Structure formats: C-alpha cells, structure tokens
Amino acid sequence: MKTGQSLSAPATILSASRRTDIPAFYMDWFMDRIGMGFFERVHPYNQKVARIPCNPQDVHSIVFWSKNFGPFIEGGFDRRLSDAGYRMFFQFTLNPEHSLLEPNVPPLRQRIDQMAYLIRTFGAKSVVWRFDPVCIGIGPQGQPFCTSDRFAEMAAGMAGIGVQTCTFSFLDMYAKVARRSAAKGVTFLDPGISEKIGIASRMAAIATQAGIRLQTCCEADLLERLSGDVPITAASCIPAPLLIELYGEGCPVLPDKGQRRSQGCGCYLSKDIGSYKDHPCYHDCLFCYAHPMTPKPDSI
Question: Which DSSP helix (H) or strand (E) runs through 130?
Fold first, then answer.
C-alpha cells in the first residue's frame, strides 16, 4: 500500500513484540500464525485466551522490535509480508558492543548493515534506532563503564546510513536484573537525576549535530527537569499518527492504557503478541527484564 492510501475499516496495530525478539528467533512461528489468520494471546493473570485476527484487512501495520533483523531479512520475510499486503515499522535496538551486557547478538557491523537495508527498503521514517538502555556500572574487574560514552561514534555511523530518529532510556533496575548482574560480577549504578540530565543533554547535542531527532522512552521525570532548550521529546514507540502518515487512516488513535503512562509512555493502542513463557529470548542480555535463555536450542 502506498503512502497516504486509506484502509477501508478500522484495523489493529500488531506489536511484535515487547515480550521477545520475534524477528531474530520466531519468524517461522509468526508466519504460521499469519497463515492461520489469527494470533492467540493469553492474559497473564486470568489466563483467558484472546484471538487476534491478522489477515491483511485486519492489520493496519506491524511494529517489529528486534536487536537482530538478520534472520528476518535473510529469510525473505519482509518481501513475503509486503507481497501479502502487510505494512511494517521497525524498532531496532543497536547499542555499543559489550560482551557482558549483550553477549549473544551478532557483531555490530552486521546489524548496522541490516539497519541500512531496512532504511533503503522501507524508508527512514519507518525505522527507529533504539539506543536502549543507557547503562552505567562497574565490571567484574572493577572497570567502570557507561554505554553513552560511545553514543557520538554510533550517532555518526547511524547518520551516515540515513537514520532520522533515536530513542533512548536509562536502565530500570528490576530485581531479576540485579540478581543476574550480581551473578556475573557486574554492578549496575542508578545515576541520580542530575547525572541523567547531564548525559541526556550531551546526547542531545550529539544527535542534533548528526541530524538525528532524539526522544526518550518512559522518562517523564527526566523530561520535566530538562532545560527547555534541550531538544529531547517523549517517544511514542507505537506511533499511530506516524503510521497513519505512512500508511493511511484506519488504526485506532487511542493511548495504550496498559503501558506505563505515569512514567511517560506515549504508545498508542496496539495488540502485543508473543509470550515471555513460550518465546524466551536467546540474546541473554544482562539487563533484560523479560525471560532470557541460553543456549539457543537447535529446534528454534
């Protein structure tokens, strides 16, 4: 469907997925469900099963989230979905290489090439670079680290392939993250608001120089305290108005009340598929709040 073409009836935005990395590990499952014409989603509390129709006329657009779009691209899933009439948007997390924080992702150069492919194929407005989360800590040998120290280097590379938008946030220290990092001898530090303001302001200056729009996810307190001349806005990771601009009317333009609105989540209503339990992620990231699992079995 071309930009500006309208859909005939209201349709769903599919989010695939906040819960796992479908493009990296579960595209065969995803395409099986597409072929069946529906996804099933189990409510985490009452265990009720909801059926989500997913024929092309039922879906306004699909927002894919991943740290590795290699299997998605190499398997030709982008072409298959496009040919079937599906419209796509991409949230692509690319952080500085760090063997402790993200031990099982492919080399950064490969994933930058994937980002470049998606931009060439779908346009820069359809691809968001996520520098997420910003992590500050001390490694097992006592070495300090702050991932934002490499933001300038990465921003220059991203600008070179046409990236227009970057979303960042600071690490949320869940209990499971603290336990996992302690087992690896890593201590994550929670910077105070003054340090966050300093980091965010430096990142904003770098992004502006690179021609990249910087936005932040679920950092309401930070945004309230930033100086008015710091060019950072609140992110909408499920961006219904932008999806309408790209693909025409037809999706709901309603806030997603199931997300962290009080913390600044700007997402619009979507249907998130995938499962923490049934679709564990094999990147094994140290800061993951989902259910990482390693090693990856041969059957996936």
Answer: strand 127-134
Report yes or no on 164 lying in a domain. Answer: yes
For the chain, give the mean pLDDT. Answer: 92
The answer as to whether 52 is a domain residue is yes
* pLDDT of 251 above 80: yes
Q: Phi and psi of 98, rounded to 5°?
A: -155, 110
Residue range(s) defining the domain that contains residue 229? 12-272
What mean pLDDT do residues 175-203 have? 95
pTM: 0.92
Tokens 């031990």 belong to which residue? 103
272 in Cβ contact with 261 (< 8 Å): no
How many whole angstroms separate alpha carbon 136 and alpha carbon 139? Answer: 10
Q: What is the mean pLDDT of residues 238-243?
A: 97
| Helix, strand, coil % in the chain, rounded to nearest 5 | 35, 20, 45
Token pair for 157? 């590379």
- Sorting pLDDT into bands at 50, 70 and 90, what band is 289? confident
The whole-angstrom separation of Cα 105 and Cα 243 is 28
Cα(118)–Cα(89) distance, integer angstroms = 10
Q: Is residue 283 part of a domain?
A: no
- What is the number of domains present in the chain? 1
